[in-house]
């Protein structure tokens, strides 16, 4: 791949086997491709986890719940969210 080419895959363009994905040598280009490919998922994840933390903290303050209970609720909510969502993926093959 030439150095000025860029990866323009979206999430619907995933291929079944890693052999069909482009090989990227540069760590910087791999990072940029990864962040571009997963941009929407990262944004949604950050927004939903932030909303969950704000909601849980508001409810905990409203009902004067102990701080340890708030931390448990936040932790369990984030674990459930990560177990039910699709993981981020790589749009490339790494030489490493």
Automatic annotation (TrEMBL):
Top-level lineage group: Archaea
Keywords noted in UniProt: Membrane, Transmembrane, Transmembrane helix
DUF8119 domain ranges (all copies): 25-94
One of the Pfam families matching this protein, by short name: DUF8119
Residue ranges of the TM segments: 42-62, 68-86
Basic and acidic residues composition-biased segments: 8-17
Region (Disordered): 1-21
Full protein name: DUF8119 domain-containing protein
Organism: Natronococcus jeotgali DSM 18795
